[in-house]
Amino acid sequence: MTAPALTERVREELRRRIPLTWLPQPAPAHLRGTWREARPGRIEDSLAAALDRPTGGWQVAGASADVPADRSLVRTLLGREIVLWRDTDGSLLAGPGSCPHLGALLDRCDVVGGQVLCRWHGMPLGRHTTPQWARWEAHDDGVLIWVRLPESAPEDAPTERPVLPVRPDPSASIAAVVAMPATCEPRDIIANRLDPWHGAWLHPYAFSHLAVDEEASSNDRLVLDVAFRLGSRVGVPVRADFTTPDRQSIVMTILEGEGAGSVVETHASALTAPGAHPARTMMTEATIATSPRVGFQLARHLSRVVTAGMRATARQLWVDDLAYAERTYTLRRRADG
Ligand code: FES
Ligand SMILES: [Fe+2]
Fold first, then answer.
1. Given the DSSP bridges, would you call strands 234-246 and 21-22 parallel, antiparallel or unpaired?
2. Are 140 and 270 found together in one domain?
3. Domain-located, residue 178
4. What is the CB < 6 Å shell around ligand 1?
């Protein structure tokens, strides 16, 4: 093998093993404005297409890990207190969050034999008790927990299961979930994500070299190339798309580059009752990362540290993005008088 061929071979091997690319961060003065491409009408059209997609009545209530086998959890969705707990086979159950005896909140109660034991006087509440307490459909998809509430989407026909996007194989991936509330409606959270053009401007610490591929994009799908920043000098370039499986969810899938097949699911669940103002919404984001790299396989064994790191990054991004969503909500409320 000639010297140049060998050098190229070594370079190629390095590129294959190390996904980092020498990609200095552009200074603000040299960063190209994206406001012409981020047309309000374009974002509104994508949002209208997303809002047309039914949820089947399902709302994300948190992470699977939030509900252990022996403890209940109360979450408020659509202004309703909901207790979540596990049956003897581990399946998720859901019912009203207020005890029928004297109204105690059924949060952090002991769960024994698939029954919630109320903390105040020990009333057992389960699938076979009187009263029967598992009133609503609940589903644990292995990463997130869901509840189907009758009032959550009166316009949609209820479905057996929530609409789940394609995820990487759980045995070869790491999942991390972040949840943060905001004063806005679910649609504002979706609208923020349907504006990828803000990425390099609002989050220069996380993204650069962002370009939407208009040819490949439509109102139903946004395709873009972007570099995830790992400091000011290096980045990880990827190609990704955004799709909205239902009106309260938006999914980013890495199509090419490091972590291809990984997904970031963002779900928006209304905390307040329909029509309540100010509206409050919980943003729950699940990052399900996969990579064939040896380093990544090792990282799986350190998954607690890795998932804590993933959560910290997502949290920083979402502080900015939720401020954006809250601003959108404020402006819409102002325009509506
Ligand atoms: S309030 Fe629950 S048992 Fe009394
Ligand atoms: Fe953002």
1. antiparallel
2. no
3. yes
4. 99, 101-102, 104, 118, 120-121, 123
